[in-house]
Amino acid sequence: MLDDKAAGRPRALLDALDAWAAERSLDLVVVNSASSDPDSPDGRFRRELLVWGRGPRAVAAVARFVDLAARPLRLESWRGGCLDDGADRFAWHQHELSASRKKIAPLLRQAMREAPPAEKHAL
What we know:
CATH architecture: Roll
Number of helices: 4
Strand content: 15-25%
Low-confidence stretches: none
Radius of gyration: 15 Å
Order of helices and strands: HHEEHEEH
Structural class: alpha+beta
Largest sheet: 4 strands, antiparallel
């Protein structure tokens, strides 16, 4: 699915996602996809996940999500990390195929609850 949306142009996908998130004033963006691989002889089912923190507290939530979810969801970097950006954004192949949004959402909520508050800077 990320392949289809990126269509060989990951920057275009990220720019569109960034504009969409900015328009809605979102600090945390998550794209969770499930599809069958049409190039696979058996039409293999797959899941992909992109998580993007767009502010200090959201970046902390992303870091906590990685700690909580990497093992249970069996996350593997998508395309060698071509959509990743430091600690702000990660895209993965999700090898734990039984983990739908109903399992991912509670992990995200927990990560957001446990993220430290953003530091306030004096002027």
